[in-house]
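Lab notebook, design round three. We kept the backbone fixed and only want residue identities now. Task for the bench partner: fill in a sequence for the structure below.
Input structure tokens:
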């Protein structure tokens, strides 16, 4: 069992009541998805151990390609952009102007689209970020 210090949710939670359930486990930040009403903010920026983390849903964009996401990360001034909307796992590291940007979609444990159900548990140590991807009914994978 992992000790969870913080929960980041990329939207489509659909009810503020669910946020309260998550908050019983750990402090929780949720951004608004296209299935949410105006309960949650459009985006959130956190600084965690020196790593600047941005959270968005992604429904605001016509395309969720790496170019669009890279420019959103640069606009937000972050190192790690966590997004949702597609309900599919996605991971990419981009180098741009000597800056490393991580683009990450944890997928969805409950309503995946054309993919397996997934969620992530991440660890931050300074500016280093690593995570494990979990398929709730299978074993886990590790990423850098």
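Proposed sequence:
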């Amino acid at each position: 069992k992992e000790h969870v210090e913080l929960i980041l949710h990329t939207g489509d939670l659909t009810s503020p009541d669910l946020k309260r359930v998550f908050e019983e486990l750990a402090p929780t930040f949720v951004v608004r998805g296209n299935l949410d009403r105006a309960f949650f903010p459009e985006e959130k920026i956190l600084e965690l151990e020196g790593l600047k983390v941005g959270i968005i849903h992604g429904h605001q964009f016509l395309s969720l390609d790496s170019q669009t996401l890279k420019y959103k990360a640069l606009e937000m001034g972050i190192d790690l952009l966590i997004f949702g909307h597609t309900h599919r796992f996605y991971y990419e590291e981009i180098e741009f102007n000597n800056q490393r940007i991580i683009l990450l979609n944890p997928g969805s444990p409950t309503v995946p689209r054309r993919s397996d159900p997934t969620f992530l548990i991440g660890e931050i140590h300074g500016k280093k970020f690593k995570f494990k991807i979990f398929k709730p009914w299978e074993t886990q994978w590790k990423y850098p």
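Keep this in mind before ordering anything: The mean pLDDT is 87.
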